[in-house]
């Protein structure tokens, strides 16, 4: 088996708590029916196109906020920040990433951006100091699952895909990574994710107990 010395982590939903409960809480706060946000923004062709443009940096978060607010009938002020206000750090995965680095594994963050202004999803996570490479989609004009963005991460880590594990909570992004040679893990439940990483990387990522 190829020795795996690289770990590539998605951010939202991997290093943070899951996105769906935050969205449900937002809908409740705003008086929206359950599922209204998903229906308006992700099951609508124009809205999906705008979100992909945001991820590639082709439109700003403020522009996205304005269009999304119009479709939802809400105020646009810091809409993205309001949607994800309940996200918190996922301590188990952050600790596992740190343990992997201590064991000599290179760890990169590969994230589809939701814009950086006026609300920055990454604030407080010290990505530039705690990880070996950081690729935020809008800064490179590419988004997952495009091969180029995976290849950019590999270049930054200085590793081939065959030596790396890729973790994402969005299951549809895993097969394109696997086609490039990554081992993949679907991040659904933190303990299971960490256990899968320990097996693939061959290192302990949790405290003995």
UniProtKB/TrEMBL annotation:
This is HAD-IA family hydrolase. One of its GO terms (molecular function) is hydrolase activity. Keywords: Hydrolase. InterPro entries: ACAD10-like, HAD-like_sf, HAD-SF_hydro_IA, HAD_sf, PGP-like_dom2. PANTHER family: HAD FAMILY PHOSPHATASE, HYDROLASE, PUTATIVE (AFU_ORTHOLOGUE AFUA_1G12880)-RELATED. It comes from the Bacteria. Coiled coil: none annotated.
């Amino acid at each position: 088996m190829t020795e795996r010395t690289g770990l590539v982590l998605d951010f939202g939903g991997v290093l943070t708590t899951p996105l769906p409960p935050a969205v449900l809480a937002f809908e409740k706060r705003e008086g929206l029916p359950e599922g209204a946000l998903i229906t308006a923004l992700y099951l609508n062709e124009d809205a999906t196109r705008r979100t992909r443009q945001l991820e590639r940096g082709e439109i700003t978060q403020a522009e996205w906020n304005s269009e999304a607010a119009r479709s939802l009938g809400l105020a646009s002020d810091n809409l993205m920040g309001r949607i994800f206000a309940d996200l918190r750090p996922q301590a188990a995965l952050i600790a596992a990433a740190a343990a992997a680095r201590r064991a000599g594994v290179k760890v990169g963050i590969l994230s589809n951006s939701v814009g950086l202004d006026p609300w920055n999803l990454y604030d407080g996570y010290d990505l530039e100091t705690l990880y070996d490479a950081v690729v935020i989609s809008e800064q490179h004009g590419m988004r997952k699952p495009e091969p180029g963005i995976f290849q950019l991460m590999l270049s930054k880590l200085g590793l081939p895909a065959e030596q790396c594990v890729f973790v994402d909570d969005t299951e549809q992004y895993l097969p394109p990574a696997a086609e490039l040679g990554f081992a993949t893990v679907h991040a659904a439940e933190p303990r299971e994710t960490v256990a899968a990483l320990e097996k693939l990387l061959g290192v302990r990522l949790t405290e003995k107990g």
